[in-house]
Amino acid sequence: MRDPSFHRSLTLFRTFLREQDDPHTAYELLARDAADQIERHVRLDGRIVLDVGGGRGYFTREFRRRGAHGYLFEPDPAELAPDRRAGTVVADGYLLPLADGAADVCFSSNVLEHVRDPATFLSELIRVTRPGGLIYVSFTNWLSPWGGHEWAPWHYLGAERARARYERRTGRAAKHRLGENLFAIGVGPTLRHVRERGDVEIVSARSRYWPVFPGAVTRVPVLREFATWNLLLLLRRCP
């Protein structure tokens, strides 16, 4: 799908709405889309690609399908697919069991909002990427309409109120709790942190799903916290 385009955004949004009922279709589509985004900057065939926090491995499988040497690092064994293969490692993204510069591409999709210390997490992704290599990081920022995850958009009225409403209406416990496994990360602070670093340069900072001028919305303070929805950062490791 052409990116950006209304067709792509609408297709992804419709699939996202069915994610709870059909996660396989949703994540396979998202994996193909993410791989397409990476291949606009580097061909995956023959590259060493790390998927950090990739859960059931949809992204890793897509990278391998395109000829990459894909490796999945996931801290929670319960999130892994039952048929996980060689190249899957139970490991924390804060401390990856890899040498400096081991990867050509380091990939992390929708993980940063779930870590307590995003700066340390980013530092580890950068450390294991070779000089000149690419780091792909996307996350759902807190003030996005989807920032509350399963209890969005009611998080605008308060996290505890939103979580309680979700549990009352669905009759099941919410997966996420603010301050424990979900954190109020912002677009502006994240961009400032990355720009202040001396070990990476920004290749692209854009809304992952926005159909028109996806980079423009991230440059407008305040508005970007609501309108970006999901921030995509493509970083190049400096020599």
TrEMBL record:
State the InterPro entries in the record: Methyltransf_11, SAM-dependent_MTases_sf
A single Gene Ontology MF term assigned here is:
S-adenosylmethionine-dependent methyltransferase activity
| Superkingdom classification of source | Bacteria
* Keyword Methyltransferase among UniProt keywords: yes
Q: Where is the Methyltransferase type domain?
A: 50-137
Query: What are the protein's UniProt keywords?
Result: Methyltransferase, Transferase
Transferase recorded as keyword = yes
> GO BP, one example?
methylation
Protein's name according to its UniProt entry: SAM-dependent methyltransferase
Q: Which organism does this record belong to?
A: Streptomyces cinereoruber
